[in-house]
Amino acid sequence: MRGFPYIAEPYVERWSNRPPHLNHEGGALNADYTTVDALCAIANHLGKHGLEYNRDWYWEGRGWNFTNNAGIPTVRLSFAKQEYTLLLPLVENAHDYISR
User: Fold this and answer.
1) Read out DSSP for 36-69?
2) Which string of b and e fits 55-86 if b means at least 16 CB within 10 Å?
3) Who contacts 12 (Cβ-Cβ below 8 Å, separation ≥6)?
4) What's the pTM?
5) CA torsion sign, 34 to 42 to 96 to 66?
6) Which pairing describes strands 72-79 and 6-8: parallel, antiparallel, or unpaired?
């Protein structure tokens, strides 16, 4: 853990609608493009608001939200200040929000 005290776990599916793999062989590198795409969108969004990676926030890893016994993939992020977590938009599909 990086050590930032404030944790947020946005849903991957709200930040990316990209398929998790390519339509052809790709070996170990052909895995979970959805999470990577979501993390890139989040990094871009936070950067537009002046946040810098490793200074203001850090990607802790991938997580799961087990609401109603269904595992929903999340991106686990930590933040240096609690107010930074408010920059993650509270919209149904953030990937639609980001692309506008």
Assistant:
1) HHHHHHHHHHHHHTT--BTTTEEEEEEEEE-GGG
2) ebbbebeebeeeeeeeeebbbbbbbbeeebee
3) 34, 35, 38, 62, 72, 73, 74, 75
4) 0.78
5) positive
6) antiparallel
Order of strands across the sheet with 72-79? 6-8, 72-79, 57-65
In the structure encoding, which two tokens stand for residue 82, read together? 């609690």
Q: Which residue bears the tokens 């490793």?
A: 54
> Are 31 and 18 in contact, with CB atoms under 8 Å apart?
no
The pair of structure tokens assigned to 56 is: 């203001």
The pair of three-digit structure tokens given for residue 49, joined into one six-digit string: 């608001």
Per residue in 15-56, pLDDT (tens digit) is: 888 777 666 666 555 567 888 889 999 999 999 999 999 999
